[in-house]
Amino acid sequence: MDATTLGSVLALVGVLSGAVVAYLGKRGENATTRMNSEMDQIQEERDGLRVQIADRDKRINDLLEQRLTDQVELARLRVKIIEMGGAP
After folding, report:
1. Radius of gyration of the chain (CA)
2. What is the mean pLDDT of residues 12-24?
3. What angle do CA 74, 78, 81 make, to 5 degrees?
4. Residue 32 burial by CB count (10 A; 0-12/13-18/19+): exposed, middle or buried?
5. What are phi and psi of 84, to 5 degrees?
6. Exposed end of the chain (fewer CB within 10 Å): N or C?
7. pTM of the model as a whole
8. Do residues 78 and 88 touch, judged by C-beta distance below 8 A?
9. Which residue, among 70, 69, 65, 87, has the nearest Cα to 78 in the 3D structure?
10. What one-character DSSP code corresponds to residue 10?
């Protein structure tokens, strides 16, 4: 093998290894991009769920307050019924 052939073979190996490295690098970049996209989507869903939970908790508190108000009103009406001579 003369020097020209050896140089050509080495250049071919270098080009092929460079192509493989570029291919693997691009695959890694695509995987990282997909992972970042998935994480962003998960975080957006999490934030939406937090808002829904906060709304639900507020609604629960409102209903508990309304229940307490209703219980007080029922007790007042029972007392009024008893005062008027009826049976509760």
Report:
1. 37
2. 81
3. 135
4. exposed
5. -85, 0
6. N
7. 0.54
8. yes
9. 87
10. H
- The position carrying tokens 């691009």 is 26
> CA torsion angle for 27, 33, 36, 38 (degrees, to 10)?
-80
Within 10 angstroms of residue 27's Cβ, the number of other Cβ atoms is 10
Question: What tokens were used for 24?
Answer: 């693997």
Tokens representing 81 are 């019924």
30-59: pLDDT as tens digits: 888 888 899 999 999 999 999 999 999 999
What is d(CA 20, CA 8) in angstroms, rounded to the nearest whole number?
18
Q: Which two tokens stand for residue 22?
A: 């570029």
- Cα end-to-end span (Å), the chain: 113
Quick one: tokens of 71?
A: 């219980």
Q: Residue holding tokens 């005062």?
A: 83
DSSP letter at 2? -
Q: CA of 17: how far to CAs of 22, 24, 29, 63, in Å?
A: 9, 11, 18, 68
